[in-house]
Amino acid sequence: MYQITARGPRAAIETAWDTLAWTDPSPAGAVDAKEDTRLTWRLDAYAETELDARACAELIVEVAPELNPVVEALEDRDWVTLSLEGLPPVEAGRFIVAGSHALTRSAPGKTDILIEAGPAFGTGHHGTTLGCLLGFEHVLRSAVPKTVLDVGTGSGVLAIAAIKSGAQRAIGTEIDPQSVQVANENAAKNSVANRFRAYHTRGASNALICEAAPYDLIFANILARPLIGLAPELTRMVAEGGHVILSGLLTRQEPLVRAAYTGRGLNLVKRIRKDGWSTLVLRRNAA
Fold first, then answer.
1. Does 29 lie in the same domain as 54?
2. Whole-number pLDDT of residue 124
3. Taking the CA of residue 270 as centre, how many other CA atoms within 13 Å lie in the half-sphere pointing to its CB?
4. Quick check: helix, strand or coil at residue 96?
5. Would you give the DSSP letter of residue 206?
6. N- to C-terminal Cα distance for the chain?
7. 30, 46, 76: which is the final residue of a domain?
8. Range of 75-89, 102-116, 162-176, 204-218 with top mean pLDDT
9. pLDDT value at position 172?
């Protein structure tokens, strides 16, 4: 495993992040950007091979010449798990997300979700997951969704939150087989395995997923480009009066993603911004 790091102005970092995230296929297996100091931002990308790492660095320099990416070989360890161990619980409205090292007795009126540190995305600490949970909190003010689809389910945290809030059934999709296993294991640890199942599939065109439509609520916490590409399928599968919660997009990518869904009959009802990331909550009007 190789880590590619670059520091510089926010605009340059976001340009490099955007390029690595949108290139298909991308030499980066994962990429993140965050504020490093008051004046600089930091980009971290990860690649499986040295060749891919060098390709990441070349792409960064090509689109943002002022950046000086550094490539570093990492020890063969589970860096995702190690980086998450010991993290404090995350509170998002009524939800508390934490591993067993931090999850204690439920606070009055709070819903505990047990998510251990692991290779699947979704512990609640990232701005996109947190935004989705806060967006879901908004949805729950008007109704409890009974059927849920979670596209890019990762750890399964969003689907598990939905079931613990009263949903009768949730389906998760993932392109990463390991995440599918982790999500199903997390469902069992949270005692909701009888109402949740994650499947290894791309997008939302799987026959089983289509047959279970329409859904009262659809989560899609992925990236801006696939969110736009999935707009025809997701808007077709959401029930009348149902909601779609989208995340994984940078704040400046909002207009394109929003247009892809509002142009197909959905209305924006809430927007949440966390750490440079946006979450959009949209609703299909009832007939």
1. yes
2. 47
3. 18
4. strand
5. -
6. 52
7. 76
8. 162-176
9. 94
H-state helical runs in the chain: 10-22, 50-63, 79-84, 127-140, 157-164, 177-189, 207-211, 224-237, 254-262
SS3 of 145-185: the string is CCEEEEECCCCCHHHHHHHHCCCCEEEEEECCHHHHHHHHH
170 and 56 in a common domain: no
Residue 18 lies in domain: 2-76
Same domain, 91 and 6: no
Assess whether 31 and 100 both reside in one domain: no
Q: Which residue has the higher pLDDT, 75 or 244?
A: 244
Compute the half-sphere exposure of residue 29: CA atoms within 13 Å on the CB side of its CA. 16
Euclidean distance between CA atoms 148 and 218, whole angstroms = 6
Domain identity same for 178 and 263: yes
Instruction: Specify the 3-state DSSP secondary structure of 284.
Output: strand
pLDDT in tens, 146-161: 999 999 998 899 999 9
Domain shared by 204 and 131, yes or no: yes
What average pLDDT does this structure show over 181-188?
91
- Across the beta sheet with 169-174, the strand order is 196-200, 169-174, 147-151, 215-221, 238-250, 277-284, 266-274
Please count the CA atoms within 13 angstroms of the CA of 269 that sit on its side-chain side.
21
Tally of domains in the chain: 2
- Nearest by Cα to 226 from 207, 206, 249, 209: 249
List the structure tokens of 67.
């950046």
pTM for this one? Answer: 0.71
Query: What does pLDDT average to over the chain?
Result: 85
